[in-house]
Amino acid sequence: MLATGGTASAAQTGALVSAASARCLDVTGNVQTAGTGIQIWDCNGQANQQWTVTDAGELRVFGGSMCLDAGQTAAGTKLQIQACTGAAKQKFTLRSDGSIYGAQSGLCADVNAAATANGTTVQLWGCHGQANQRWTVSGGSNPPGGTCSASPVNPRATAQAKKLLCYFYSQYGNHIISGQEESTWVAGSEYEMNYIHDRTGKYPAIRGMDIEQDGVGGRGVSWWNAGGIPMVGYHMGAPTKPDTYEGSQMAVSINAVLTPGTAEYASFTQRLDKAAAQLQIMENAGVPVLWRPFHEAGGTWFWWSKEGGSQYKRLWQFEYNYFTTTKGLDNLVWLLPFNGQPSSSFYPGKSFVDIAGSDTYAGDYGPQTGLFNATRNIVGGTIPIALHENGPIPDPDQLQSSNTRWVMFNTWHTDWLTNTSHNSISQLQKTYNSSYVVTRDEVPNLK
User: Looking at the domain assignment, is residue 346 inside a domain?
Assistant: First the structure.
């Protein structure tokens, strides 16, 4: 527990959770720069949510390197962080009623306008004891190496899958994890990866792959061993139709697909078996996989979405049970991939989804705040939200200034990456060298 009020025998550390929103006191953007503001954000256990009350009456963060700072004493003053100096404006007490009391101002830490949304600023205000001024201590969800409260939907998930999911929780709201979809037909499977590295000196953290391409299992293992994260999707052809991109847009009866004894069912399960064999190669090597089946859910172009949300959810749940129970695959982190107009009718529910996301091929570097919020309104604030496919990469500065907290991006292959009208060289360099963007060399050891 944190030390609370009065005399503390020793400094202790924890997250401070708002009674009004169940969100945590958070240094915006996980930035350690002096003057960075304070907000509330979904609890994730990162260092910017771990506060220590010291015997000197300070609230320290980032391992004690920065202090909560009032700056001024007037009601409405936005709280921030500054280098710890022992000044009166940095003296705070966590009192027994849950309030964070500023000794210099005589005011309390207050969530602005009693709002509960992510990104709401925290200010000084007259102490009144309402829920937006009450804070409780929690251990939160910690990044790899600590204890994580996030549990994969598969109760038998491998240790590596658990660590990968916990890592996504630790980055959600604090960084965006870079990703790049591969092609295998232009200049070999490393075409996009080398294009990025040659221009930025960095590799993407996530390698996006399609299971129908040869050698996915082996490339996933190699990427993991190099420090990266494999993500796999599948442009599955409609069962009994060609197992190609063109076939994925053909119509088929989902009732027939899910009815044992039909030709459609036999074709479907054979294709699942083929995919499972590649995923099993990675599990055998201790490699977890971000698995994003039936992507662009809600669009009417792929067979799995043509019959609406209820049939889509049946497919999703069947595949989940087939892979986890029938095939015994326990290395998958299940990513639900909406299209650019997410619909709640296509959401199978949190018991089948570890991470959710949407996609867009918008023509600029904007943060896509509306799409993020639309997705969050469906799946809630308790699971990370991914930009699982994109054309232009959202600008990291705009992501932070707008509090649009995609946990990852995944730029589509070939022309979407290499055509400078989609992603200019200068923008690519800015993105991959931003402190807000996680690249492969920055992914911790998740083994």
Answer: yes
